[in-house]
Amino acid sequence: MNIKPLGDRVVIEAQDKKEGKTKGGIYLPDTADKERPEQGKIVAVGPGRLSDDGKRLPMNVKVGDNVLFTKYGPNEIKVDEKEYLIAREEDILAILE
Q1: How far apart are CA 82 and CA 30, in angstroms?
Q2: How many domains are contained in the chain?
Q3: What is the extent of the structural domain holding 78?
């Protein structure tokens, strides 16, 4: 992948946490639940946003962090037949440890 995000944006590889079956033991087809993911792994980070006085503010996340993000904040992109999400740092809610 050759994506370099600008400003305070990050590239996220979404992780689907689909269960193949419900708690009651019913198997679900792939088409049953097409909700957008809310978790992923950061694969690229921009340099950070500029403050009002022109200074670059460092990012709070780094490549390799597993994060929780807002469901509809990130934009979907496709690069080399693989889907990624591009989000602003403010769309990231937490770093999962």
Answers
A1: 18
A2: 1
A3: 1-15+31-86
